[in-house]
Amino acid sequence: MAAMTPTAPDTAPDTGARTARPAAPARNARPRPRVWRGLVLGLGGAYFLVPLIASFVFTVHTPGQGVSFAAYTELLGAEGFLSSLLLSLGLAAATIALSLLLAVPALVAVRLGAPRLRPVIEVLCTLPLVVPPIALVTGITTVLRWGPDHLARTPLYQTFLAVQNEDFPVVLVLAYTVMALPFVYRSLDAGLRAVDVPTLVEAARNCGAGRTYVLVRVILPNLRPSLAGAAFLTLALVLGEFTVASLLGFRPFAVWIVSVSGAQARMSVAVSLLSLLVTWVLLLVLSRAGTAPTGPRPARRTAPKES
What is the per-residue pLDDT across 99-129, written as a single tens digit (0 to 9) for each? Predict the structure, then answer.
């Protein structure tokens, strides 16, 4: 019986007989292109910094007279400098507020209640990119001329005069809002895509929050980077816009720089450098506001005292 019973093969591994396999030869790893990265970054930095340095040298160096900072010291006393700068900053603040006030509720409502209307809203918001600024100015000028002639006996006549007040031209705010709408839409749409808005709204409504509370305390904090990006682009657009303001006859900061450049070249270049510096500082502030934490800071853990 023992001879007829098949014996199981010896399958126990012989650990002592096995030897470690030799490591496969490593492939020839290509070195990272650090040299090329540094070269590209250096060329990009030179492309932006060399013109700025050349402009600064032009403002402070006079051939045969040496170095002088008179172009910068005369800025504060220049006629129209401070008023035009404050006007541009005020127009930028009003444009940012109006753009966000129009775009945020509309996009949130479409996101929650009517997702099928999103392509329509996208076309309407990006349409100003197709319309040239000169065509926009022509349409605004036609309306401003048509209004007083046909509405002289109506209360709207004073409205047409009020929006053209030189101290604070509301018509520029309306025009800048239309021009900034594509950038505001793209920034907010990207933020809404990254956030699960329906779930947040449903959770807040289940806790008893109202619509205004949900929008202000739930949705807007999650859209802080997008709001900062929209304000970032709108501020840059308003501070550098020249065509609309010039053709409508107003004098914000960009128009004032061009008007000064004809008589005082060094001062105009100095003002341009100063405006660029102010714009950078404001943009850094907005970017910092967009990346700041929204919630309370966690309490630091302290190590237990040794007895």
Answer: 999 999 999 888 888 888 888 888 988 888 8
Rounded CA separation 47/54 (Å): 12
Give the whole-angstrom CA distance, residue 135 versus residue 205: 46
Exposure of 51 in the CB half-sphere (CA atoms within 13 A): 8
pLDDT in tens, 235-256: 889 988 898 999 988 999 888 8
Neighbours of 216 (CB within 10 A): 12
Give this prediction's pTM.
Answer: 0.74
